[in-house]
Amino acid sequence: MNDKLALPVGTTLDRFIMRKQEDFPFATGELSQLLRDIALAGKIVNREINRAGLLNVTGAHGQQNVQGEEQQKLDVIANIRFIRALRNGGEVCTIISEEEDGIIQTGNTKGKYVVAIDPLDGSSNIDVNVSIGTIFSIYRRISEVGQDGTEEDCLQLGTRQVAAGYIIYGSSTMMVYTTGCGVNGFTYEPSLGEFFLSHPDIRTPKTGAIYSINEGNLNSFSDGIKNYLRYCQDNNYSARYIGSLVADFHRNLLKGGVYLYPATKKSPNGKLRLMYECNTLAFIIEQAGGKATDGNRRIMELTPKELHQRCPLVIGSPDMVDKVEEFLRAEDLAAESIVKAANDVLQ
Ligand code: AHG
Ligand code: MN
Ligand code: MN
What we know:
By secondary structure, the chain is an alpha+beta fold. It contains 9 helices and 15 strands.
């Protein structure tokens, strides 16, 4: 018999979190509890997604979120589930969510942590059985414990994240997270109701041959991005774009590739949100050996000024991100030399 078939099922997420906590003698267990709360809400949302077609929870909710995007019923349900789990868990004082206008106070004034969450990413794919996800970042509050958290607690640099992760509801459901000591992935076993460690210490390939971008926006990309896309085509790269950031990111993380959501005419700052999407995935990709920039600057060093701030995103295998930046710099240099030539003529 194949030896592998007889292997034990493996380490559960709970046990893994507990073991990691033991590595830090002064850890209080609060962050561990918080991660478990998120995993629990993820299981509940997973159940709802799996049955969406049967429970009449597909389709639009009939309202727009603060960013003017149409909310789907499952966006709203997932938002409620995660906020409820974090409120009941007790470790989080304040939450910011892509689906909510302002900051949310949980009432747990003793909670040391702040969470930023995109409860359901890939809304346009909900009704068509395509992978979607949840994205979350955890920060330690700056304000004193014993009162509500503040906007300042929520608008911290990405470099200050203490943990970041996502749950992908796909052909199987997985939770992938980092606390700054590498990235680990856990696959959900629905019949046991547990996440099991399936992808220990994920490292992203240094380079790859997949590029992921909404090429329908081609006409409104900058020349640098257009030239990079031509380079990908000249080199026979594969285009892969699901339209759920989590799913596109997850594939590229494992296989090697680059995901781009650059500025477009419609979205001059890009479409993706710094606090709920970009910083989170930036922390994960860096921990896996990759890179994340806005085409020029490191994502995790961008100063957040507002909760729903958007920024362009180039993320993935380090050599591929470098290549994109090379094309963008070449475009800047070309623009500078045109300006210089024009000034020379005028003088
Ligand atoms: P959300 O569903 O949380 O609003 O995020 C949607 C995002 C992201 O998941 C995806 O990569 C991107 O929107 C797709 O945008 P386009 O349809 O413009 O390509
Ligand atoms: Mn999203
Ligand atoms: Mn969303």
